[in-house]
Write a structure and sequence with these properties.
The protein is of the alpha+beta class and about 220 residues long. The chain has helices spanning about 1-5, 10-20, 25-35, 40-45, 55-60, 140-145, 155-165, 180-195, 200-225, and strands spanning about 55, 65-70, 80-85, 85-95, 95-100, 105-110, 110-115, 120-125, 130-135, 170-175.
Length: about 220
């Protein structure tokens, strides 16, 4: 699975080639001709301002989806954005630079970054080695789906619940899993399940995510001891 994720997808190949391209008029014209059949991604690199700066849940989630997990494309142009759902960024391999609320945070392999809705952020992944996975979680159904799995006064519990019941909202949590193999395996299972997308997938993903939260909280408590 990891070896498959390291391989470049077609959009990443386009983004990478343009990133390293000497931006002469001729080179850009040749690049346009080469990728004329991929108008969407070609437009992204030529006009990155078109990238969506605010995303709604319905932009990503199907009606019966509570969880989505995606591979972040390497070399996609950097852009600041926010969204209506929760996000967990996981660095499976390599490193990335996260900009959030005017802060710059370096993320390394094993880092988990829990990001709240409506928080402006952007991420840079401009190398070949990094594999970054984004877990998107609906805010609108979170309490109904996951509240039974949360323990009061856990850090992760406080993070999620602050966006429903308190004025002092927690913007993000950032911690290192020390490349915990259980956390890694659950996230990889989630990625595999997301690619299946049958009538059982949402149920499986929700149970795996609940398990992931428990392992994250256990790891945090061990780290704090």
């Amino acid at each position: 699975m990891i070896n498959k994720l390291i391989q470049f997808d077609l959009d990443e190949k386009l983004f990478r080639e343009y990133y390293y391209l000497e931006k002469t008029a001729k080179n850009i014209q040749d690049f346009k001709l080469k990728y004329q059949d991929d108008a969407y991604n070609l437009n992204i690199v030529l006009n990155p301002e078109i990238l969506q700066t605010h995303s709604l849940e319905e932009d990503y989630f199907e009606k019966n989806q509570d969880i989505i997990i995606l591979k972040h494309p390497r070399y996609i142009p950097f852009f600041i954005h926010d969204h209506d759902y929760f996000e967990i960024i996981y660095i499976l391999k390599g490193n990335a630079i996260q900009t959030i609320e005017d802060k710059v945070v370096e993320l390394q392999a094993g880092h988990l970054f829990l990001l709240a809705p409506q928080i402006k952020h952007g991420i840079k992944v401009f190398n070949d080695e990094t594999v970054l996975l984004n877990i998107l979680i609906r805010k609108s159904t979170f309490l109904d789906t996951f509240s039974d799995y949360m323990k009061e006064h856990d850090i992760t519990f406080d993070f999620f619940l602050s966006h429903y019941y308190t004025k002092d909202k927690i913007s993000y949590l950032h911690f290192h899993s020390q490349e915990d193999i259980q956390i890694q395996n659950i996230i990889l299972q989630m990625y595999q399940e997301n690619n299946i997308q049958d009538s059982y997938s949402n149920t499986v993903l929700c149970h795996l995510f609940s398990l992931l939260l428990a392992y994250i909280q256990r790891k945090i408590k061990k780290t704090l001891k």
